Structures are given as structure tokens and as C-alpha cells.
Amino acid sequence: MFCLRSCSRSSLFKLLSNSRSISSSCVDPNVGLTTDEIEYRDAALNFAKTELAPNMQTWDLTEEFPVDTIKRSADLGFGGLFVSPDYGGLSLPRHDGSVIFEALSQGCVTTASYITIHNMVNAMIDTFGTEVQKERYCPDLSSMEKLASYCLTEPGSGSDAAALVTNAKKEGSKYIVNGSKAFISGAGATDLLVVMTRTGGKGPKGVSALIIDTDTPGISYGQKEKKIGWNNQPTCVVNFDDVEVPCENLLGAEGQGFNLAMHGLNGGRINIASCSLGAAQQCLEDVVQYTHDRKAFNQPLNANQHVQFKLAEMATEITTARLIVRQAARSLDAKEPNAVALCAMCKLYATERLFKVCDDALQLHGGYGYLKSYPVQQFWRDSRVHRILEGTSEVMHMLVARDLLKHL
Questions:
Q1: Cα separations (Å) of 143 from 273, 314, 372?
Q2: Which residues contact 24 (CB under 8 A, 6 or more apart)?
Q3: Quick check: is 39 catalytic?
Q4: Which in 57, 196, 338, 363 has the greatest CB count within 10 A?
């Protein structure tokens, strides 16, 4: 295993000389990237093709959370992409992270998506944590010696996140946490939780964030959910029953938790949109080859003009989405005032339009696309949830509209 921090360009390009597909076409993901960014993408793509893709379908069928494989990605620095090198990270901009997550998703959307969540938690601690918290948690998260989950959604509050009711009552030098969190990715298999709790009154200003180790007494888990996709990462309810958390584990200040949560989600929306890009890119690559090989009416499928037009539409959607996602990432890196709206816009466009690309790829495969022996159906299933998590498409519409109307 090689590392981004030490691998030379010549050895990296030699290693990956056979790993690229449709690299000279109009849908080439390397267009517009610097040499360093191409290195990052190539390293991620190689990991996707050698470590993720060969196992993707088996993990899906057995519902195996591939912890060992996930941890091997840390050898490339993928456990702390946005974290300071002082704590084992790469301190990359969001744009470069987007490039990496897109490439990883070409091998397995579900695994790549979990890695984005782990990175979101690690970055939140690195950005808002005390020196003690960063020294205690970030090195192990960056090396993936420990894995993390993000706990915001509750059984009774999804899009209305500020209505959460999980409470943390301060008693002396500790908080006593009670409540439940729902749809938590990695739950039951991770070592650390960043949990949004209510420490004050109603509304967003009463929310605080706590770092909670999962071996703390009083934490329990519900039954693992049976899902349409994302089957190789566990998802379940996390219950807190008089869980004692030291006050020193407060992340940021009391009442700042909702702002921290939204800050994390801005980057998370770019990351999930990037995972949809990877899914669509791989579906396009697969269907281009399939329609070339498959014969109907004594000619290849791609000799049919309708098929050619459909492929052209798919390529256009992918390229357009990629431009929006990367622009949003640059905007977030630059802390531009419209970054929140652009993050919402990129997630809305990419997850909606690129799911349609996956659907079109399945349709062009005909009956074979509906078989689990063909990976296109798994990319289709795994990317469907991207329109829901990290903020539904409906909420993304609201955020974009709010940004437009506030200027009147």
C-alpha cells in the first residue's frame, strides 16, 4: 500500500497506467484538475478498483461492514482528509476531497459514503475542538484506529433538526444524556459519536454537541435496519440512557451545537454529491461498454441513434453536475457568503440528476440491469438515499430559494 504523502508521481502513474477508462472523452473527471489533484484522484481510483469494486457486491449481499478495508484507506490519508497534519491529517481543501470521494465511489458507493461521514466527524473535532480534544481524538480518527458516527437525526426530527429532544442535563462536571438518535451510519461498529443534544431551551440555540465514546455505559443500539441500499454499512437507532459524559467533551460552546451541525453538513453535502458523481461515472462507463458489446437487430446497441442520444444526455448531466459540485467546494473553501446555497444547490442537482443517470444505465442494460450479478443495479440502489440524507432535496430547494429571496 502506498501513501499520498510519500508516493512519487512517476511510480503512481506507472501503477495506474491500466486503471483509467474513457479518460480522453468529454466526461473525463481529470479535466480542470492540477497535477496534484490528478494524483489524489488516481490514488483513490486505484484503491476503488483494487480494494472496493471486487468486493462491492459480496458486501452488499452479506451486509458486511468492511472495517479492515476502510481502515486500509487510512494508509493513503483518507481518514483525515481535512484535518491538520499535526493530528495525522492531510489538510486538503474541500475541492480535493470531492475529487477523492468521487473516485472512491466508483468502487463502492456505500463504503465511500461512510468514509465521508467519518471525515466529517474528524474535521468537526479538528475545527471546533479544544487542543485536548484534538490531541485525544483526531490522531486515532485520522489513522482510522477508531471510527466515528455523526448523530443528529432522531425518530421524531429529521428535516426539522432544531426540534431534537435528546437532552443533556449538566450535573457538576458531567452531562447526563438521555434520548435516541435514528438512521445512524456505522452505529454499533464505530468507536466515537458526535451527538447533538439539547442543553438549553427550544430551538437551535438550545442545542450543544458532545463527543461520546461508544464504550460509555448506558449506550445501546436498536435492530439493524433492513435497507434498499447502503447494505454494507450498519444503520440503526442509538439509545442513550443516563449516559454520563464529562463536560470536557463538549464540542464548541454550549448552544453552538446546531451551528456546528450545519457547518458539518455543508461539507457533507458536497461529499455525498461527489459520491453520486462516482456512481454515475461508473454506470456510464459500464453502459458504454455494454451497449458496444450487446447486439440487437444485427448491430451493436450503440449503433441505435436513440441509445447514442441517451448516452450523450447522461454524459452531459455528469459533466454539468461535476462543474456545480466542484464550484460549491471551491466556494466553501473560500468561505464565500453564498457557499451554503451552493452546497445545497450542488447536492440537489447532483443527487437528483445523477440518480436518473444510474436509472438510465440500468434501463439500457435491459433485463440484465435488474440482475444482482450486474453492478449497475447496486449503484442505482446505493445512490437513491443520497436524495434524502444530509438534507432532503426538498430542504435543498428551501435553502436555495432562501438565498435568492433574502436579497430582495
A1: 25, 37, 34
A2: none
A3: no
A4: 196
- 299-300/192-198 β-pairing: unpaired
Residue 301, sorted as left (phi over 0), alpha (psi -120 to 50) or beta, turns out to be: alpha
Residue the block writes with cell 510519500? 6
- E strand or H helix at 179: strand 174-185
Angle of CA points 314, 318, 323, to nearest 5°: 150
Q: In whole angstroms, what is the distance from residue 97 CA to residue 263 CA?
A: 16
Strand partners, 300: 295
- Report whether 228 contacts 96 (CB < 8 A): no
- Of the candidates 219, 178, 220, the one whose C-alpha atom is nearest the C-alpha of residue 199 is 178
Instruction: Kindly give the pairing relationship between strand 295-296 and strand 174-185.
Output: unpaired
Q: How many CB atoms neighbour CB 256 within 10 A?
A: 18
- For 154-184, b/e burial (b = at least 16 CB within 10 A) is beebbeebbebebbbeeeeebbbbbbbbbbb
DSSP state of 224: P
Nearest by Cα to 27 from 260, 236, 284: 284
Quote the cell numbers at residue 324.
456545480
User: How many CB atoms lie under 10 A from the CB of residue 236?
Assistant: 19
DSSP code of 148?
Answer: E
Q: What is the CA radius of gyration of the chain?
A: 21
pLDDT in tens, 279-289: 999 999 999 99
User: Cell for 343?
Assistant: 452546497
**Which of the residues 39, 102, 317, 390 is marked catalytic?**
390
CA 118 – CA 186 distance, rounded (Å)? 9
For the segment 379-391, what is each residue's pLDDT rounded down to a tens digit? 999 999 999 999 9
Query: How would you classify residue 77: left for phi > 0, otherwise alpha for psi between -120 and 50, otherwise beta?
Result: left
**C-alpha cell read off for 209:** 454537541
Residue 341, C-alpha cell as written in the block: 446555497
Which residue carries 494508509 as its cell? 75
How far out from the chain centre does Cα 38 lie?
20
The answer to whether 10 and 84 are in contact (CB under 8 A) is no
User: How many Cα atoms sit within 13 Å of 349 on the Cβ side?
Assistant: 21
Neighbours of 124 (CB within 10 A): 23
